[in-house]
Specification:
The chain has about 260 residues and is of the alpha+beta class. The protein has two domains: about 35 residues, no CATH class; about 160 residues, Orthogonal Bundle (Sec63 N-terminal domain-like fold), CATH 1.10.3380.30. About 35% of the residues lie in helices and about 10% in strands. The strands form three sheets. Strands 1-2 form a two-stranded antiparallel ribbon. The protein has a two-stranded antiparallel sheet with strand order 3-4. Helix 8 crosses helix 9. The protein is extended and about 95 Å long.
Length: about 260
C-alpha cells in the first residue's frame, strides 16, 4: 500500500473495495541546503576522472607519497625546489598545520579564484563529514586541490587529493545557519553544537590568516585583508565578564551515596 492506511470498505455489488488514506504516508525526498524537502528534483551527473596508482612510473605516473622521504615529498608537492629553497607555495604552507596549508596555497595560485569566495570556502577545511547532506555542489576549493594534487594520499596531509579534515557543506551551513537552527529536523546528521564548532573553527582559521606574517605575495596580502574584513576588528577587553551568581547546590562539596562493594577474600 506504500504507506496508505485503511479508511473504509465500499460495497460495489459483487465487489468489495477498500479505501486508503495517504495523509501519513512517507515519500522519498531530497533535502536541500535550506532544509526544505524536494520531490523528484532534476539531478546532475558529474564525471570524476580517477588517477590510478598503478600507472607505469616510467610514463610519467606519480609516485606514492607515503613511500618517499619528507624532503622528497616536499619536492613532489612543490613546496621546495630542487635546491631545497622554499617556493611561494611552500611559504604559505608553512604558516598552517597539516594539509590545510596546501589547500590555501594552491587556491592563491589560481588568479581567477575570487578571494571573497575563498574566505567562505575555507570553512570546509575543518568541517569533516558532518555537513555533507546539505552540500549543493563541490566547492571550487576542492577542484583546485584535485587539479594540483590529483587523488594522491599523503599521511597526515592529503586523502584523495584533499586535506584530511576537508568536508563539503560547511559553506551552505554558514549561509543558512539561522534557518537550520530554527528547523526541528531530527534526522539531520549534525546538532547545534556542531554548528557552533564550525563557526569557531572557521573564524579561528581566518584569524590565523589575518594576523599571520606578511609575505611577498600579493594574493596572500589581499586574503589577509579579506579575512580581517570578515572577522571584524579585534577588540581586547581587560575586564573579566560578569558571570551569574553560583547556585547554592554548586557551592557545597559533592557527597556520594553509593554503597561500596567489597568482594570476599
Amino acid at each position: 500500500s506504500q504507506g496508505g492506511e485503511f479508511f473504509e470498505f465500499v460495497d460495489r455489488g459483487k465487489v468489495l473495495r477498500a479505501r486508503l488514506r495517504y495523509e501519513g504516508a512517507r515519500v522519498l525526498g531530497w533535502r536541500d541546503s535550506r532544509g526544505r524537502i524536494l520531490l523528484n528534483p532534476p539531478m546532475r551527473k558529474v564525471t570524476r576522472l580517477y588517477e590510478s596508482p598503478f600507472r607505469d612510473q616510467g610514463k610519467g605516473g606519480r609516485r606514492n607519497l607515503n613511500d618517499l622521504t619528507p624532503a622528497e615529498v616536499w619536492v613532489a608537492l612543490k613546496l621546495i625546489d630542487e635546491q631545497g629553497v622554499p617556493t611561494a607555495r611552500g611559504e604559505v604552507f608553512s604558516l598552517f598545520s597539516g594539509g590545510e596549508g596546501l589547500a590555501v596555497a594552491v587556491a592563491l595560485e589560481d588568479e581567477a579564484y575570487p578571494l571573497d569566495e575563498l574566505v567562505y570556502d575555507l570553512a570546509n577545511l575543518r568541517s569533516g563529514h558532518r555537513f555533507k547532506s546539505v552540500s549543493v555542489s563541490e566547492a571550487r576549493l576542492a577542484a583546485v586541490c584535485r587539479e594540483a594534487f590529483g587523488f594522491q594520499d599523503c599521511e597526515g596531509y592529503l586523502k584523495g587529493g584533499l586535506p584530511v579534515e576537508y568536508g563539503e557543506g560547511a559553506v551552505e551551513v554558514l549561509r543558512n545557519r539561522k534557518d537550520l537552527l530554527a528547523s526541528e529536523d531530527s534526522e539531520r546528521d549534525f546538532s547545534s553544537g556542531d554548528l557552533e564548532r564550525l563557526s569557531v573553527e572557521w573564524k579561528s582559521l581566518l584569524a590565523l590568516i589575518a594576523y599571520g606574517p606578511k609575505l611577498k605575495n600579493d594574493r596572500w596580502m589581499a586574503l589577509q585583508k579579506e579575512a580581517h574584513r570578515v572577522i571584524g576588528p579585534n577588540e581586547f577587553n581587560r575586564e573579566l565578564p560578569i558571570l551569574p551568581a553560583m547556585p547554592g547546590r554548586q557551592r557545597g562539596r559533592f557527597e556520594s551515596h553509593r554503597i561500596g562493594y567489597f568482594p570476599k577474600a
